Amino acid sequence: MTAVTTQGERPGTRMARRTRAGLAGTLRSEVTKIISVRSTYWALALLVVASVAWSIAFCAATAAHWPHMSAQSRAGFDPTQSSVIGVVLLGQLVIATVGALTITAEYSTQAIRTSLTVMPRRGVLYGAKAAVFAAVALAVAFPASFLAWFVGQRLLVSTHVEATLGQPNVLRAILASAIFVVLCGLFSYGLGAVLRSTAGAITAAYGFLFLLPQLARALPTSWYNDAIRWLPGGQFDAAISTSGPPISSNLFSAWGEIAVFAGYTAVVLIAGAVLLRRRDG
Amino acid sequence: MIEARSLTKRYGSTAAVSDLSFTIRPGMVTGFLGPNGAGKTTTMRMILGLDYPTAGTVTIGGVPYAQLDYPMREVGALLEARAVHGGRTARSHLVSLAQTNDISRRRVDEVLGIVGLADVAGKRSKGFSLGMSQRLGIAAALLGDPQILMFDEPVNGLDPEGIIWIRSFMRSLAAEGRTVLVSSHLMSEMENTADHLIVIGRGELIADCSMADFIARSSGQAILVRTPQRDVLASAVTAAGGTVSYTGAELAVRGLTEDQVAELAFGNGIRVQHLAPMKVSLEQAFMELTADSVDYHAELPASREPAEHGTEAQR
Q1: A167-170: long-range contacts, CB 8 A cutoff, minimum separation 24
Q2: Spatial strand order in the sheet of B274-277
Q3: Burial class, B221, CB count within 10 angstroms (exposed 0-12 / middle 13-18 / buried 19+)
Q4: Which of A272, B84, B190, B293 can pair with B194 through a Cys bridge, CB separation 3.0 to 4.6 Å?
Q5: Is residue A192 classed exposed, middle or buried when 0-12, 13-18 and 19+ CB atoms within 10 A define those classes?
Q6: In this complex, do B73 and A111 lie within 8 Å of one another by their Cβ atoms?
Q7: B114 chain-A contacts, CB cut-off 8 A
Q8: From B150, which residue of chain A is nearest by alpha-carbon distance?
């Protein structure tokens, strides 16, 4: 049998200065984890493809239909919103799943035990996971938004109403859609940490993001108008429109809507962190 | 060195582990023994900081696990071999673990070689057999070249070859001066591996002693003698201060050594056909000790005794 010890010094005694396993190594570890499973690539490719496909379908159809559209419909058409709304609607489906799985897959495989054993500073593990996931989500969501917008505008050339980046609120809409997607992912990640179950976390995320705004419609209109801006998923399609502030009479501004959702995301993330630290691993 | 002091873990009103104190020393294999549900895994999880004790403490070289600077360089643990993401290759899995403790990639390749997985390092682990998964788990435990190694039920579900490999591996780790803690619910498993035993039942300490003491402690050592002159020997033994009992055609002698019995027989001109210490089944000893601490006793139907139970008890 082979001797187990490495040649020379033990790894732990190499450095005289007191160091400890910490955030830097854990971040590297989480990068390795996320890039070493195929599902990451499939899911993120799906995010890009779905976003662009929506844009193509919506914008191409509009362009074809344009000559027959009424002046009123033409005036109400928002070329930017129409091209990036797929990023929001389909992207949140995909990213909520990926975000939840980032942590719940560790529970379903029980790999969480190993993760917590090699990095017993639980907050460090939790933060590193969230940071790496958010960075990857951002790196995919931004290009997806831009690509969806760009392709959409090319298809709308025949209508002569295609948007340019220099127009008011166009860049805001593109950025907001990408940021919303990243926040959805983190929101779902936090739910995953709280619920420790893939099915539970995804169901809860979809419930908050899709179902709650629909249920709110059952409220009397005046109540609904007051409530909707405070809901997590809210009416995010309005936040990516290019009409100037206020984007809609019963909503906050676009950045305000993002801030509200970021607040919910922070609450869920903190709840996940507290529970991860407090509960048996 | 692992030190547990009054370690207690309660779930509601049920105590999984109660007031457990022990010290696990380096240079030997310590067997952590108890029936299923005795609290072995819970104790190991508390050692590793996964579960928080309700009361008491457990430390690694005087420090709680969670405060170790580089946990992987102090303690290597294999809790559940299949607890890995199957979509990741063996190497990626180990690299991701190594990075958290600033361990080099060279060491990853080294441990893959040690456990014999170098050829499948690039394969995704979902295709691994249980034996290979076990080796991958051991590779992970060895990454930091730790002085303390913990294995929870490492031979469960392994084929004979795998069992032999893991046993000799644990022995070699202890021979290098490391602290090895291995849990099992099978006494027979410890027979060939452990030097020291910590036995628990229903979360409470039953025994903390060397393997030799454990055997000696159980139901007294007897010497089995086969002779045509049983009664003559019996009276000679009794006269010499020993006790006898008849077991079938043989005589079981207690209170004298093998040498003393042989001398007695020779001195009295008694013909002896067989003389040997009666091997006390460790399993028997274990079952006697833990009889009161098994949660659920299966009532054996009087008419037909299950065959496996019989063989196990006789082994």
Answers
A1: A167/A80, A167/A242, A168/A242, A168/A244, A169/A80, A169/A241, A169/A242, A169/A243, A169/A244, A169/A254, A170/A80, A170/A242
A2: B243-247, B250-254, B222-226, B274-277
A3: middle
A4: B190
A5: buried
A6: no
A7: 2, 4
A8: A117
Question: What are the beta bridge partners of residue B207?
Answer: B199
- The pLDDT mean for chain B works out to 86
Tokens of A55: 């844009």
What are phi and psi for residue A43, nearest 5 degrees? -65, -45
Spatial contact of B84 and B93, defined as CB atoms under 8 Å apart:
yes
ipTM above 0.95, yes or no: no
CB-based burial label for B201 (10 Å; 0-12, 13-18, 19+): buried
Q: What band does B304 get if pLDDT is binned at 50, 70 and 90?
A: very low
Place of tokens 């997607």: A181
Per-chain mean pLDDT for chain A: 90
Per residue in B87-100, pLDDT tens? 999 999 999 999 99
Question: In this predicted model, what pLDDT tens digit does every residue of B195-210 receive, in sequence order?
Answer: 999 999 888 998 899 8
- Higher per-residue pLDDT: A18 or A198: A198
- Quote the pLDDT of residue A27: 97
Please give, rounded to a whole number of angstroms, the shortest distance from the CA of A191 to a CA of chain B. Answer: 20
Contact indicator for A50, A17 with CB cutoff of 8 Å: no
Q: Which residues, in sequence order, are bridge partners of residue B223?
A: B253, B277
Computed on alpha carbons and rounded to an integer, the radius of gyration of chain B in Å comes to 24
- For A238, the enclosing helix (H) or strand (E) is helix A236-239
Distance CA A199, CA B114 (A): 39
* Cα B64 off chain centre by: 24
Q: Which of residues 122-151 of B touch A (CB under 8 A)?
A: 140, 142, 144-145
Taking CA–CA distances from A123, the nearest residue in chain B reads B66
Which residue shows structure tokens 């936040």?
Answer: A239
Task: List, in sequence order, every residue forming a beta bridge with B197; answer none if it has no partner.
Answer: B31, B209
Q: Which of A1, A26, A30 lies at the smallest CB-CB distance from B172?
A: A1
CA-nearest of B152, B53, B97 to A106 is: B97
